[in-house]
């Protein structure tokens, strides 16, 4: 057990690094979670006592963003610390023969070189074929599904058929599971943490909840019988189960003595979806579009040994920064990694006072966005641009494009230049998504 601090040090590329100096890293990711749908985010009907407990001891990033408003490209940005458009991972759900570019170095690759044992539990969604499999992308251990969603219960005739990419696997072997999948993923995470290795660990706990299909146990549903809307009731039960699983993981860290020296990140892969009963208010929009409800997410970091007390951090940060910050904490060379994310530690320690990012960019096929401090630019193909000041209008309800033409043009030119430096998308999406999301963007821009 890591309760006994190893006296053995390892030499990595001429640098002496001891296990006691390298914190564990745990990323917990929810799937399609609404901005307002946790207790610490102000929800009155969703219960999340374990995440609320985590939030009280965490740095809470109030302006924290993911790199895409849909699942797969968001995860590609997280895993590489780079804008996923740099390697063509722009659209959602890679086709059968595509996945996250194998030339990219992942966070797991880098931390394994620092002496970490690495694991991913849950949703992968970065390619189905063997060359994209987690154990070939820096992870020693994988328990989960290759695809993006599945039933929360074992189904041998559908998701768990031998040839299904939605089946649950353990390092390439199809496995049968009992019970509710969210609970199972939590149990597997606890097992991973119980390993008696003296090496630090990196675990990516990637829940499918509360992404559809909307499945919950009868016991969990009964707890929310007071919620009249059936979809919202099921959604609440799914988050309750996820929070319960997270609680078991946090309890294991506590009981093993690892909690204080484990960096725990929590975030969602994108905003709440239109089909799962989520609420993103007061943010505009939802999963799939470039308004804040699609890309601004609940975002926490706990590292008790370095930051003993919970607090708010209001400057703009990105999921890109998780790789850089974790690598820096592990003693790695962030500059050599050439990431788009930045090491947040100097900012959190007060050694740097500026914002970690003055600009952030988003783009997927037909829609783009850019932040320049509080200013936000949105582009819709075939329609044009909208401009907002989030300091004054977090709900993005007042389009200032006509009032600030110089600012609009300046940001537009920088956005175009940024996009020109990216790789062409390696796959696309069906035309229906352009039509659907174009209407959603325009509806919000025009206040309809």
Automatic annotation (TrEMBL):
Recorded superkingdom: Bacteria
The EC number(s) attached to this protein equal: 3.1.6.1
Sequence ranges assigned to domain Sulfatase N-terminal in this UniProt record: 23-331
Q: Which Gene3D superfamilies match?
A: 3.30.1120.10, Alkaline Phosphatase, subunit A (3.40.720.10)
**Keywords carried by this UniProt record:** Calcium, Hydrolase, Metal-binding
Q: What class of enzyme is it?
A: hydrolase
What PROSITE patterns does its record include? PROKAR_LIPOPROTEIN, SULFATASE_1, SULFATASE_2
Which SUPFAM superfamilies is this protein grouped with?
Alkaline phosphatase-like
Q: Which InterPro entries match?
A: Alkaline_phosphatase_core_sf, Sulfatase, Sulfatase_CS, Sulfatase_N
Q: Per its UniProt record, what Pfam families does this chain match?
A: Sulfatase
Please provide, alphabetically and separated by semicolons, the GO molecular function terms listed in this UniProt record.
arylsulfatase activity; metal ion binding
Question: Which family is annotated?
Answer: Belongs to the sulfatase family.
| Entry protein name | Arylsulfatase
């Amino acid at each position: 057990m890591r309760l006994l601090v190893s006296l053995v040090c390892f030499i990595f590329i001429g640098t002496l690094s001891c296990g006691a100096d390298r914190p564990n890293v745990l990323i917990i990711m929810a799937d399609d979670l609404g901005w307002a749908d946790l207790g610490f985010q102000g929800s009155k009907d969703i219960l999340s006592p374990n995440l609320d407990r985590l939030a009280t001891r965490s740095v809470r990033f109030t302006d924290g963003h993911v790199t895409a408003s849909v699942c797969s490209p968001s995860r590609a940005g997280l895993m590489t610390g780079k804008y996923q458009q740099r390697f063509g991972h722009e659209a959602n759900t890679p086709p059968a023969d595509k996945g996250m570019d194998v030339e990219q170095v992942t966070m797991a690759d880098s931390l394994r070189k620092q002496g970490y044992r690495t694991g991913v539990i849950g949703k992968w969604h970065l390619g189905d074929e063997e060359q994209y499999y987690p154990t070939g992308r820096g992870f020693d251990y994988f328990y989960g599904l290759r695809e993006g969603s599945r039933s929360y219960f074992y189904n041998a005739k559908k998701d768990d058929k031998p040839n299904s990419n939605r089946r649950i696997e353990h390092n390439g072997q199809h496995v049968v599971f009992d019970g509710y999948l969210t609970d199972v993923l939590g149990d597997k995470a606890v097992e991973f943490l119980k390993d008696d290795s003296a090496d630090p660990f990196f675990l990516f706990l990637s829940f499918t909840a509360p992404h559809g299909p909307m499945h919950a146990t009868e016991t969990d549903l009964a707890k929310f019988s007071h919620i009249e809307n059936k979809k919202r009731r099921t959604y609440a039960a799914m988050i309750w189960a996820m929070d319960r699983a997270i609680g078991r993981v946090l309890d294991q860290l506590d009981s093993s003595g690892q909690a204080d020296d484990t960096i725990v990140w929590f975030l969602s892969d994108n905003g709440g979806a239109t089909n799962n009963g989520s609420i993103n208010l007061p943010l505009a929009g939802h999963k799939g579009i470039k308004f804040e409800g699609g890309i601004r997410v609940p975002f926490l970091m706990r590292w008790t040994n370095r930051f003993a007390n919970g607090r708010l951090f209001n400057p703009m940060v990105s999921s890109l920064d998780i790789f850089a910050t974790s690598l820096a904490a592990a003693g790695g060379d962030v500059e050599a990694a050439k990431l788009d994310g930045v090491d947040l530690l100097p900012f959190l320690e007060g050694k740097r006072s500026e914002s970690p990012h003055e600009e952030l960019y988003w783009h997927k096929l037909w829609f783009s966005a850019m932040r320049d401090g509080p200013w936000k630019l949105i582009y819709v193909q075939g329609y044009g641009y909208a401009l907002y000041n989030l300091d004054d209008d977090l709900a993005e309800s007042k389009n200032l494009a006509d009032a600030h033409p110089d600012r609009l043009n300046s940001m537009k030119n920088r956005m175009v230049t940024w996009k020109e430096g990216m790789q062409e998308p390696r796959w696309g999406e069906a035309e229906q998504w352009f039509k659907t999301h174009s209407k959603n963007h325009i509806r919000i821009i025009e206040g309809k």
